[in-house]
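Sequence in, structure out. Go.
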Amino acid sequence: MEERRKRDEQRLPPVGAIPEQSNRKAITFSASRKGPLDLDPDPLDDPFDPEQADLYSRMRNQLNQLKETIPSQERHQINDSVDDFLAQPANWRDVQFKKVLWLCGNSMRNILAQHDAARNDPEPHHAKLPPPVAEAFRRPVETWNIFVLGDSNLRELDAYRLGPQEQEEVRNALLAAMPVANAAAEDRHITTPKAAAVIKTSISLTNSPSNNIHSRQVQEVTSRTWQNLIVQILRGAYRVAQDIQDPRTDDAKELVKEYKAGIYKKLGEWTVIGAATAATATAVAVGTTTYMYSIPFFEFVVSHGPSLKAYLAITFQNVQLTNIIDAIAAIRARLTSQ
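Output:
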């Protein structure tokens, strides 16, 4: 009876229980050539528009001029936001990640909106910008507002208008996902440097103390983006768990054998770098290297199981998803105890 109960705990629900990524109003992820999750380029829905290219170039010139004419210590409140935007491609034709660009532009709008809300307050306020900074900063922000209107993807992101109840649900989801997003951004087995940088930026923007339309829009996009991140992590872990649970191929059987022998402890030696070292290659069976980029997702889900379950319960309210976490943890525990 006890043995049957343990088998039931380890039985994976169907992979169809894991939802698909939301690809319109959030950043999406897919496995890079070396395994960790990378950003997916946005679809190019609009034809190239020379006027948009000119506006984009003008805004970048305005931001560069601001940096040249105003001392860094006077613009400390906007430095990170400006640098994030200028870190995007110099030419509009080369921008592949419009949602990332939108996060950067919206961050600047949010800073200016906070300043405008506090500037007439006679008391000191952290959001107030020095007058020369505010004046110089307003020009690129106004250019951005015009620029957004000329692109359907950016315009769609600007159109978010959630009600109070929906916004509360978004905030709860963000709080629950924060530990997982933080951990994924720090783990090069899970995210590429590019993906990690975007996740860290979204964390910073989400933690903003402001509560205006711009911050609420960022929270909605970030919530959907983190949902996509977690969905892809689950998919990566599921594949390993499924093959361990039911090892039908020779590679899967070899994976079970090597896992029992403790191969998971060698992950730091042979993942991320792109290929096994000569020393590791002799120690790792050929079949196991098939899974070398998926095993970190399996281990990540086990390590962050409680946080993942808390998030999934809030976001999807689907008991099969939490059962997947439990099954993966049980499969891992059985393997490492044998």
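Check: The chain is about 65% helix and 0% strand. The first strand starts at residue 29 and ends at 31.
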